[in-house]
Amino acid sequence: MDHDEETWLEGWRRGDEAATRQIFSRYYPRAVRIGVLSGLGPLDAQDCAQDAFVQAYERRAQLRDPKAFPLWFHRIVTRRLLDTLMAPSRQRELASGADPQRADPVSLAPPADELVLLAEEREEIWRWVQALAPRARTAIVLRYYADFSTREVANMLDVREGAVRVILHRAIAQLRELAHETARREPSGATSSQP
Question: What are phi and psi of 101, to 5 degrees?
Answer without folding.
Answer: -105, 10
